[in-house]
Amino acid sequence: MIDIAGILIDNILYVLLITLGGALISLSVHFVPVGGAPAAMAQATGIGTGTVQLAAGAGLTGLVAAGAVMQVSNSLPLVLAAGAVGAMIMMSVTMIVGTWVYVYGVGCPPASAKVKYDPITKDRQDLYVSQGTEGHGLPTVSYVSGVLGGLFGGLGGSLVYHSLITAGMGPDVVMSNLIGLASVFAVGIFFVNAVIPSYNIGGTIEGFHDPKFKKWPKAVFSSLIATFMCALVAVLAIGGL
Fold first, then answer.
1. What separation in angstroms does the CA of 137 have from each of 30, 128, 130, 155, 202?
2. What region does 33 belong to: left with phi over 0, alpha with psi -120 to 50, or beta?
C-alpha cells in the first residue's frame, strides 16, 4: 500500500529545502566582489566579469563537488560540505589570480574606494585609489567576502541538487536519467537566483562592506518566491520519473 501522506510530506520538505537553497544562492551573490567591465580596466574594485557569471561559476563548481560526493555517500552534511568547499576554492582561485593580474600585470595596488580603512586589516585605502577610479584590485575585505559568497552559494547549490536527487530516488528509477534531469533543474534554479540579485546590485559591488549589500533582504525575498515556484515544478517533474 502506497503511503500517500508520507510521500506528500516528503515532497513538501524537498520543496522547502530547495527554496532555502535558492535563498542562500541569492544571498551569496551579494558577498561576491563584482566589478564588471570597469574592474576589467582596473577602474573598479572586484573581479572583471558579471554577477551572473561569477555566481553561476561558484554554484556549478559546488554542484560538481556535491555530485561527486553523492556517488559514494548520500549524507546531507557531507554533500553540503563538499559543495561549500568546492565553491569556496573556485572563488578563492579566481580572486587570487585576478589579484596577480592587477598587481603584477596592470601595476595597481588593491584598494577600495568605498571605505577609508579596510574593515579587516585596518589598512588605509584612500591613499592608493587612482584618480578617476572607484578603486581597483581585490583588497582583503573583498577577498574574504568573496570566499563567504562561495560558501553560501555552494551550500545553496548542493542543497538544491541533493534535494532533487533524493526526491526522485525510487526502485524503478534510472539513475542516469535522474542525475541528468536533477542537474538541469539545479542549474536553472541557480541561474534564476543569480539574475534576481544582479538587478538588486545594479552592476558592481565590493562585498559585505559595500553600501549596496544592505539591499540583500529584497533580493532574498524575491528569490524565495521564485525558487518556491521552480521547486514545485521540479519536484513534480522528478517525482513522476
1. 18, 11, 11, 27, 19
2. beta
Phi, psi for 151 (deg, rounded to 5): -60, -55
**Does residue 23 lie within any of the structural domains?**
no
Backbone angles phi, psi at 125, to 5 degrees: -110, -40
Segments forming the whole domain that contains residue 90: 44-239
Q: What is the DSSP string of 57-90?
A: HHHHHHHHHHHHHHTT---HHHHHHHHHHHHHHH
Task: Say if 184 falls within a structural domain.
Answer: yes
pLDDT values of the chain reduced to their tens digit, one per residue, 241 residues: 456 676 777 788 888 999 999 899 889 888 988 877 888 888 888 888 877 777 777 777 878 888 888 888 888 889 899 989 999 998 899 899 988 998 898 888 898 888 888 888 888 888 888 888 888 888 898 899 999 999 998 898 888 888 888 877 665 666 667 777 888 888 888 888 888 888 888 778 888 888 888 889 998 999 999 999 988 888 888 865 5
Number of structural domains found in the chain: 1
Which residues, including other chains, have CB under 8 Å from residue 101's CB and lie 6 or more apart?
Answer: none
For the chain, the straight-line distance linking the first and the last C-alpha, in angstroms and rounded, comes to: 19
Please check whether residue 73 lies inside any domain of the structure. Answer: yes
**Does a structural domain hold residue 108?**
yes
Give the C-alpha separation, 177 to 173, whole Å: 8
How far is CA 111 from its chain centroid? 24
CA dist 197 and 222 (Å) reads: 9
